[in-house]
Specification:
Layout (H helix, E strand, L loop, with lengths): L3 H11 L4 E5 L25 H6 L1 H20 L4 H11 L3 E6 L5 H5 L4 E3 L2 E8 L5 E3 H11 L3 H9 L29 E5 L8 H12 L3 E5 L6 H12 L4 E4 L12 E3 L3 H13 L6
Parallel strand pairs: 1-2, 1-7, 2-3, 7-8, 8-9
Antiparallel strand pairs: 4-5, 4-6
Length: 282
């Protein structure tokens, strides 16, 4: 399908404007991180906060899978789409990125104003005393408590990665979970789980990014969850035009001034090339 007319329309919508960007998992698939709801994604059941807090079996399963797979996310590198958004920010076009992803790839690409709406994989928080440690520090503790576990799991099942910094591991019964060294409380990734509320300061900052913009571009998000869709509704309520770049339908399609059925990497790169074009002279 020729998307050039749509990209021309996108350029017309953002040219000379201050653009806010909302990104979802589709932005990171070209970096090797799978998404939850893309057209080619298998069915996935993300863990809820109720399961994590209330069921030690679910919690052990999560940490075992995360122990094997988190390094895959840590090793992931920004793709063309991430780099394009950073370049557009540096050129003065993009004024901020609101991301539903936890992979830190926008920051790694060089974007400066990034709101990590759902947190990041790189921090772990104690639910009792709120003390935070790095995911690497926890990795060392889990490795000490479970020597050889990650290597055995990879040898048996290979490395099939899921979207939230974990891997598919069948046998987690013997995995030992560690608690907070300060107070003995329950440790949890500093990520907003399904069923949790995004911290209000992050939401307020995201609204500020949109309020300061002349257009909103949604890239790689199906807008299935309310935490992303509300920003589209907020933009429309303020007469800020919305463009959506996503393979497959989204919950915001009826609100969008423009919908582009295409990959985010090539679409965002095309915008970058337009910014780099010299201005015609008379």
């Amino acid at each position: 399908m020729d998307v050039r007319p749509s990209l021309d329309s996108l350029w017309s919508l953002v040219d000379g404007k201050r653009v806010a960007v909302l990104t979802g998992a589709g932005v990171s698939t070209d970096s090797g991180i799978p998404d939850y709801r893309g057209p080619d994604s298998p069915p996935r059941n993300p863990m809820t906060i109720q399961q994590f807090v209330g069921d030690p079996v679910f919690r052990r399963r999560y940490w075992a899978r995360n122990h094997v797979g988190w390094r895959h996310m840590d090793a992931a590198r920004p793709n063309v789409g991430h780099r394009a958004l950073a370049a557009l920010e540096h050129a003065g076009c993009v004024t901020g990125v609101i991301t539903q992803n936890v992979d830190l790839l926008h920051t790694k690409a060089g974007s400066r104003r990034v709101i990590d709406l759902h947190g990041t994989y790189a921090q772990v928080r104690c639910l009792a005393c709120q003390h935070r440690i790095s995911r690497f520090t926890l990795h060392e503790r889990l490795t000490g408590a479970n020597p050889g576990f990650a290597e055995r799991a990879r040898a048996i099942t290979g490395l099939e990665v899921a979207p939230d910094a974990d891997a598919v591991v069948a046998d987690t019964d013997g995995f030992v979970v560690v608690d907070c060294e300060r107070c003995g409380g329950m440790l949890k990734p500093d990520i907003v789980y399904f069923g949790e509320i995004v911290p209000r300061p992050r939401v307020d900052e995201a609204f500020r990014v949109i309020d300061e913009a002349d257009a909103l571009v949604v890239a790689g998000s199906s807008l299935t969850v309310q935490s992303g869709l509300r920003f589209v509704r907020h933009a429309v309520a303020r007469d800020i035009p919305v463009a959506i770049i996503n393979r497959g339908p989204t919950r915001g399609d009826s609100l969008a001034a423009l919908k582009i059925e295409a990959g985010t990497s090539e679409s965002l790169a095309a915008l970058t090339s337009r910014v780099a074009e010299p201005t015609p002279t008379a």
